Amino acid sequence: MKFGRISRESPDGPIARLVVVEPEKGRVIDLARAAALHAKATFHAGDAAAVRLAQAQFPGSMAQALANGSNLVDAARTVIEGRFGDEASLPIGDVTWLPASDPPVLRDGLTFIGHIKGWHERMGRDVPESMLLIPGFTKNSASTVIGHDAVVPWPGYITEKMDYELELGYVIGRRGSSVRPEEALDYVFGITLYNDFSGRGLQHNELPIGMGSTKSKDFAHAIGPWITTLDEFEDLDAISMEVRVNGETWGKGNSGGKLWTVAELVAYVSLGEIIEPGDVIGSGTMGGGSALELGRQLEPGDVVELEADNIGVLRTTMGQKEEGLWWPTPRQPFM
């Protein structure tokens, strides 16, 4: 099953709604609407009570919906059966998409061998031996997550080498801590697409500080268009992936060739800390899945499409550079 989040108008302004996505039928089903119809018909609930029950069961937050328990898929199937799903459906081309998840914590791994080698080569850095010892990942800002068909903010301090990153996003469905690899996939609800935009010029200056990438990445993270539940994938290392810029294919491959498995990455992330429902863990960039590896870069107005088999297409448009921002003045050497 596929789950997404959309924005709908209400008397109080736009509200987030959880939907089941049926691309083959060209529609989405508003779960809260279907649940309210189901409650009235099945339990004879009044209008106001039906709405309260439906919104509690299917909130607009993916994180909250997953935190309600492990029965999200079964509950969704129940309320969209028959006429309730039909009456609560909307044309897929008419909806406004929100990020597929609203992650409490957003993390991004580094697992694809091809990208590890290509990134280090292009950035003029040696692959550290420590990458063979532990899975690498960063914590990114969840406050700048955007969804399908969004415009990507472009802060003017990123003056060169704007980049996309073709990644999968593993959406956590259960709360856990220090899980082991053999049980880690039980904590993954589904998979989405994740575009970890990067300003490579600024990243080149940030990395020697030794505290990771910050302003070179945390201006925008695209997640979507929706989440496909894990049971729909036969092989997590055989998902076809592609990235296009303005309709031209810039990278194509699959989800194989990893240094660390999905289970090992999730398990390592959970060590000594808590993973929460709705959290997103990026797979890291597929080999050849960044403009950096091609010696290319994005420009304002470019349309970037990430595609993965059995998930869909995550499309975003690069915005215009936001000028007039403050930037620190370089200091004199103190050593």
From TrEMBL:
Superkingdom as given in the UniProt entry: Bacteria
Q: Which residues cross the membrane?
A: none
Is Oxidoreductase one of the keywords?
A: no
Question: What is one Pfam family matched by this protein?
Answer: FAA_hydrolase
Question: Molecular function terms in GO for this entry?
Answer: hydrolase activity
Domain (Fumarylacetoacetase-like C-terminal): give its ranges: 106-317
Family matches, as SUPFAM superfamilies: FAH (SSF56529)
Alphabetized, the UniProt keywords read:
Hydrolase
Q: Which family does it belong to?
A: Belongs to the hydratase/decarboxylase family.
Q: What is this protein called?
A: Fumarylacetoacetate (FAA) hydrolase
Query: Per the UniProt entry, what species is this protein from, by scientific name?
Result: Pseudomonas inefficax
